[in-house]
Amino acid sequence: MWVNVPLTWKNKPIIENLNIPKISSFAVHSVRMVDEGLTLPLNAGEVYLALINVTLPDGTVNEYAAGVTCSEVITDAIGRKNGCVAALVNGTEKDMSFSIEESCSIEGIKAESDAGMYILKHSTAHLLAQAVVELYPDAKPTIGPPVDRGFYYDFAMEPITESDLKPIQKKMQELARRNLAIERIELDDKELQEHFQDNPYKIEIINDKIGEGIGSTIYKQGDWYDLCLGPHVPNTAKLMFCKLTSVSSAYWRGDQEREQLVRIYGIVEPTKEALKETVRRMEEAKKRDHRKLGRDLQLFHIDEEVGQGLILWTPRGATIRQELQNFIGSHLQRQGYSQVFTPHIGKLDLYRTSGHFPYYQDSQYPPLVEKDLMKKLSDEGCSCSELSNLMKSGEIDGYMLKPMNCPHHVKIYSSQARSYRDLPIRLAEFGTVYRWEQSGEISGMTRVRGFTQDDAHLFVTEEQIAQEVLGCIELVQIIFGILGMSDYRIRVGLRDPDSTKYVGDPNRWDKAEDACRNAAKSLGVEWSEEEGEAAFYGPKIDFVVKDVIGREWQLGTVQVDYNLPERFELTYKGSDGQLHRPVMIHRAPFGSMERFCGVLIEHFAGRFPTWLSPTQCHILTISQKHTQYAQTVANALKEQGVRVEIDDGDDTIGKKIRTHRKLHPAYMVILGDGEAESNTVSLRARSGEQIADLPLEDFINNLCEEISQKTAQPSLV
Ligand SMILES: [Zn+2]
Ligand SMILES: [Zn+2]
Question: I need a surface site. Which of 38, 401, 554, 613 has the fewest CB within 10 A?
């Protein structure tokens, strides 16, 4: 609709003269003088307004003049202090300065929302690049994406150190204070090349990623601009609360053959308080880092000579793992699981049937070839690449380190004829699997190349899915409860209704999705459905745990699978005498022992509950003459299965306490004359609190009770 507006529109009272419902002052500010490109006769003293309808999130529809910006609509709707960094226009992210030409729906993107934080981080990466180039004019910015905890930017420049970050950060804050407008500019191919002619990295991106004749956009703040599709925050003032956190190196495009770059990491928050809190959490996380604690507490070791990403569980760490395995084992027995053991390798043909080879070979160690065959091939002068092709095509067979336990368990299932009376069959194994992670991605216990899953596969009838899924998540819930991980949520991964990639009958999918949904619902914790997050072979349930400092970890998974039973043609005889296909459920409540222990080390900050503590009592003697009593106490404790360490050395008791405290034992038991004479002990807790003269027998009884109850923290003192 076109509306006639008298030319005196800059005069405020004009709004009242407009015969338009709900038109706001913002619309009037954004009136375009449509005197060019239009054939409408423009009488002197008149402008024309095109009116559009803008639908707000609450359903309100406002009328504005076309050309109104997102910022104007949002300011009009929620006020000037709206806390938004960008907007969703018909579901697409746009800059605040985006001018709306047609009727649409609009919603502000708050800075603190996930989408808002992404934009904030990304915009701060631009600010970082601007600051670096001002300080180091020869530096060439390459890419700068947001990441989980903040953002980074990679620069081709001379290496810098942590101490160089401070001036860069100061420069960023100075640029933020200048409140530079961030402007989107569209450029054609030629202009793009001209703008980035001094930066070969950007030119490479332009040539590789931007098709001919398409052009792209840059974002400009002050004199600085960067190749980018946006959106961005409207001005640099929104980026005030940022902090640079570290510097490292990276290869251009992750390719070790290419240039080495300087990578600078940073964080940003919408407010000063939020930044302070994030910094506090990062410092806490540093203290809890399982890589550091794992070394200090002697829990695990990684040795370059053994191989990257391969965990050596040292005695103290192995104790924790064994306790966890025993704990889960007892529940498996109660829930009717059968324990199995399978080898670490399997034939390529097995993984061809399962679909793991050759499709996922990039994430696996290369296959192994039988000795005799290898010799024969090498005598024939067969090269590595020929060998690899022969394996891929199936002309020669080989073995693979198993990337999954499932195919082995499938073969145990199919080793016998099965009847509906046998189902469900639940096979459990702490099975070690191997995946090829890029060396840059390997980290401590949480990203490794070999790991042991607390794996199990359930072979069930269609009707049993709901009940069995429930059983699986009950187990996860018990584990989380015992470990004090009370803050967790559940994600139910469902099909994408628009996709056809899923195997299996849609009706069966509906039922399995319902089973997962109902199981999730029944737990009474926060849960969400996520369309498109199912695997192509079945819906799944993921558990996401929040630790004490607010970080989220994805742990256990329960996965329904229609595909593997099909690929391996599994059957059972039904009550009708016919053969039917079972359904498989994969489930691993911890995920992997390595990852889970890594998370637990950080969750407990190395201060494990008594039942999990590698050593539960450290017995410290005050002097040499108490050695014998220390032995008596130690033996009595060991008799009850308590893990004990004695220090009857020459150090003073103060020195002994300081030394042993570093290992965070559940208790230190201090023995001197008084204790030896009265057959008692003195206990010292991690907090430093002490109780004296506890009768030995009472102590042992209480301690055993605490261990068997799996009490969350030592509580005898
Ligand atoms: Zn950008
Ligand atoms: Zn599996």
Answer: 38
